[in-house]
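Need 37S ribosomal protein S25, mitochondrial's 3D structure for a figure. Predict it.
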Amino acid sequence: MGKCNLTALRVRQTAIQQKAAGKTFRLPPWIDVVRDIPPAVVLVRNQPQQHQLVRQRVKTLPGASKPQVVFDVQEKRVKPKKASRMFLPVAIRYEEDQLRKEFFRDHPWELARPRVVLESSGKDYENYDWSRLQQPGKRLDGESVIQRQLWLLNNIPDMTKSAAYDIARREFYRLRLQEDIERRVAVEEAEATGAIFGPTRLEIGMELENKEYERWKAWAKSETQGREQRAGAFAGAPEAQNSEDSLSTVEEEGVEESQPQQ
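Structure prediction for 37S ribosomal protein S25, mitochondrial:
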């Protein structure tokens, strides 16, 4: 353990001593402020308070005439922390974080859709009514499913997370299918009136893949020929020896045919 560094606590005393020793000609302007408001002398930092996750649910309690709003407090298990992370700020987590993690784990391609990121106040729930999934002025995306699932959990009595997830996903799939049908019908109507569309993304991808395959095939052919030539040079050019042997065999056969039979 190293010694405590008390330089910041003694900054006013150091400035006065430097003025008395003649190192400085005048006192700094903050000398009276530090006297009136001295630095803190607490040398031990307490660990930050752990935040608990509070969830709102509507449950039917025994003996109650109607469902009531209940706030469940999820106790967080205290984990031993390393010394290097002991005094870091505590991470703030919300219930929507776990819902987003589950949805985008099951639907990773939803993250590939183009999105418009706008700054907001974080109170979008005040501008939309999440009693239904499709909202006017808002594009359908994964965040709509999360907000719809959260609304079901907070407003429907005895609703579980898996049931709310199934309801929100079913509505999401139905709207996505409706969008695909509308897009396909719009393309067919445009082509019927003379519109000409370029190649689709799939056709462009296949064309790029074919070009890359042809390039790789030419490279592989040249690389194979180079390896065969190097192997032939290392083995003493067997192809040249085979050609010389075949040439001598042909010459011998020609000499034998030219000799008269006895």
